[in-house]
Every structure is written in structure tokens, then in C-alpha cells.
Amino acid sequence: MVLVQITGALLIAAAITFGNAAGVGGAGIIVPVLLLMYSLEMLQASALSNFLIFIGFALRYYFNYKERHPKKNKPVIDYDTASIMLPASLFGTKFGVIVHDMFPRPALFLLLSVTLLYLSYCSYMRGNKLAESELQQRLKPVSKAAPMISLERMSDDEFVPAGRVSVLEKQRIFEIEEQEARPLPPKKAFLILVLFACMMISIIIEGSKGLPSLVGIGLCSTGYWLSFILFIMICVVIVAINAHDINALATEKRLLGIKLTADDVDWTWPKIVQYSAYGVFAGILSAIFGIGGGMILSPVLVQLGMEPEVVSATGGLFVLFTTASSTAILMYEGHWIVSYGLILGTVSILSSVLSIWVVSGLIKKYGRPSIIVYIMAVVIAVSAVVLTSAGFYQDYVEYGTIFSAAAWSFHNFCKAK
Fold it and tell me: Could you read off the pLDDT of 20-43 as tens digits, one per residue?
């Protein structure tokens, strides 16, 4: 038994190390390990998994807080994208939970495996393109004649191709640069905290993951649906506020002639709607499958052309946000084991430090951010196999066969919990 648990701890360490590096969490590996190798119940495994991932990504955020974008003078965490997709994904999560509780569990596992394997394949192919680009960049001869140019000297030519730049316009350009260079945009941070507080209140009122309401509100009661609708409206309002601010700044930058780089998002209204839709879709899928949002959102961000380092850091913010609430609620309800929490918590801290200093250090040293995408592809693929196998094994233990009519039956959501 001790040998099994040591092996489990090593598997958890590997999942946290690589899941942290890729910004996808690793719950798809950790939860089955806790269920099968530590013989925990589902709520205990979920509580401990969320706790381990939370402290790992809390460390990651602490180190990423002042980390800079690989190509621009701005934070490595893309707060613009996060401010749109995070509330949108929580919007989708509310509906995904309903689908999860209604549909047959084996059907969800099959859909899970197909979805994650497809995302893993897309990430792998994207990694190949990035690796090819990195190789071409290394083989490209370095020009010795390129002089160093200051922002002041390049402002007239770079920002405004034609015409003169007024003193006020030039001053505004530098104000925008200074604003975007802040480690943490205050308004977006405040709205994220508001969203977190509202999500916690919603969970307390409605219940979550098999937990009853902490204030005695019945499932599908009037109070339940009022809380449900109110949280949906809050998500919409926060997306609208952030979208207005981001679009206004993007419009001003276009008027000032500020050029976008290849990986910049031109935040037009159609683009905002597109990213919001991706966020809702990712939230629905993550709730249907019972996995963290980073497992879905990070591969999507990679396909949208975001730099791998930025995907890893931004995906980490999604994971940190979602695991914080689940950890707090499940720990409050007593669904975790202190001894395992202390021992595996230490494993999580050491694994996260290894991920931050060693894996990320190697990526920076050799200039191969494509490694992040490859790691992401592997973690997602392994999660697909492990989660699906563990799910069918649970059905086999519970029903004696994975083809039981009871296992494949639909459920009434209002009686599912």
C-alpha cells in the first residue's frame, strides 16, 4: 500500500509539474490517481486535487505577476483576453453543469475522450508549426547593421506612417504604453475579484459538485433559479464592461496609428463576440466533463495564435480562479484529509517550483516555447485516456458492466444531485 501511494505521489508530482508548465492544471490525471491509488471518495479526491492545483498555480501566479511578455513591454498574463473569456466561461459553466447531471455518464466519457484527444492533436500540430518557425529563426542570419532605436526616435515612423504627430498624440501614445506595461491592471483585477465573490455566493446558495446548498435552498426551487439567473446576468455585465473598455482603447490605438504585432488581438466588436463565444463554449465543455477550464481554454488560445508563454500564464490564471472557489467550499464541508493535504501539498509546492524554475528556465534558455505546446498536448492526451479509463472502471464496479441500461440512462436534473 505504501509503495502504491509513493507511486501515486510521483504521478501527481509529474502531473503538477507539466500541467503547471502548460497552464492546464492536470486534474484529469490527479483525480483518477487519488481515486484508484489512495482509495478516496470522489468529493475527497476532488477537494484534494483542487487544493494541490490551487497552491501550485498560486505559486505560479506569484512568480508570473511581474513576468514580462516575450515580445512586448507588457505582462505575460493577457488580462484583456482573461477579462473577456473568464466571465464568459463561467457563464457557460452554469449550463454545462445541467448537461453533466442529465446525460449518461458513459456517453460523457466517450465525448470527453474524443474532445480532449482532438484538442491534443490540434495542440501537437500547432507545436510542430511553432517548432518549424523556431528552427527557421535560429538559421536566419543575424544582421549586424541593425542599429538600436529608442521609442522616442521610432515614434513618428513606427506609430504613424504618414503625417506629423502632435505633442498631445505622442504623449497619449506613451500613456497607453505605460498603462499596458502595468503588472496588474487595477480595474480588471477589481472586476475579477467581484466575479470571484459572486461565484462563491452562487455556490453557497445553489450547491456544487454533489454538495447541497449551504443555506438550505432546494435544487430547482425559485431561490435556486433566481441565484442562477442573477449570476448569469453578472457574468454578462462584467463581460460588457470589459469589452467596452478594451474596444475603446483599441479604437483609440487605431486612430493614433499604433501598429499591432502579429500576435496582438485587434479588439473589434466581432472579435470580442468571437472570444466570448469561445469562452462560453469552453465553460460548457469543462463543466460537462468535470475538468478545469484551463484544459479547454489553453488549447483554444494556442489555436488563436497566442504566444505559448502567454497561453501558459493566462491559462494558469483561469485554473487558479476556478480551483480557489472549489477548494474553499470543499474544505469548508470537510471533504478532504489533512494528512494527505500536508504531504501531497508539499509535493505540489516542490513540483511547482520545479516547473517554474527548471522547465520554464530550459524553455527560455534554448528559445523553444513550442515545448510548452508539446507538453500541453501530452498532458491533455494522457488526461483523456486516464479519465475515460477511470470512468468506465467506476461504472464497471458500480453496475457490473459498462453496458448497463442504468448507466446509459438520462437523468432528471432536478433530482440528479
Answer: 888 888 888 898 898 888 888 877
Burial class (CB in 10 A: 0-12, 13-18, 19+), 249: middle
- Which residue, 181, 173, 313, is CA-closest to 255? 173
Amino acid at 118: Y
- What pTM does this model have? 0.84
CA–CA dist 60, 100 (Å, integer): 30
SS3 content of the chain, % helix, strand, coil (to 5): 75, 0, 25
Three-state secondary structure call for residue 71: coil
Closest by CA to 301, choosing from 152, 149, 80, 109, is 80
CB-based contact 52:14 (threshold 8 Å): no
C-alpha cell at 166: 502632435
Q: What is the DSSP letter of 260?
A: P
The 10 Å Cβ neighbour count of residue 315 is 33
Cell of 18: 507539466
- Residue 150, sorted as left (phi over 0), alpha (psi -120 to 50) or beta, turns out to be beta
Q: Which residues neighbour 140 within 8 Å (Cβ) at sequence distance 6 or greater?
A: none
Distance CA 74, CA 362 (A): 22
